Amino acid sequence: MKLNTRTLSAQNSTTSSPVVLVHGLFGSLDNLGILARDLVSDYDVVQVDMRNHGLSPRSPEMNYPAMAQDLLDTLDDLSIDKATFIGHSMGGKAVMALTALAKDRIDGLVALDIAPVNYAVRRHDEIFAAINAVTAAASTTRQQAATVMRDIIAEEGVIQFLLKSFVDGEWRFNVPVLWEQYPHIVGWETVPAWDRPALFVPGGNSPYVTAEYRDALLAQFPQAKAHVIAGAGHWVHAEKPDAVLRAIRRYLNEQQ
Length: 256
What we know:
The protein is built from eleven helices and nine strands. By secondary structure, it is an alpha/beta fold.
């Protein structure tokens, strides 16, 4: 599957290898824009809509081997030999799954607040309920949708994030498939050890990357380093962009 992409050309490219930014669940290619706007000063940047999100194709299948294949197909379509991948949450898992499929196509790997584990927990049922309530209310504007969602979701930041994918009265993600395939999205199939340096950037206040996942993470990514962003939650790049970018740039410089 060729994904919908946006390519930004570097102002002063320091490498032939581009950076590919991969969003998380309920997101779109705009979500890591704060990273793209900084990194494009030195790197070509490719932003993608994952399957069943944004303007990318729809599919009843939503698991990490399929998402990794999408990334590989998109690299081929763009005639990109190798890339550095930065993924948040679901996007981070998709990038980690790519190491099992095409490890030689990966120059670098950065996972934002996600670990290669099966979480076996439902953290998004409230979001699904809010999304479905907007549809049931036949909302046509973001203002109407926000009013509906505020009865279900307390965090205004989450509402505004979701509304980025509400366009002309329609959600730009495939809600029924995401609901049906949710166990695959929070799940994980262990990948063989990847023998290159990887950077994990968890939020200090987030439950997604904790000490209990350390052994599983290092078994699959034995050269991984972690840079914890103090005071940040799951949306680590949105909450502390400067600190995240410093960690990413330090890692990228080390890979050159």
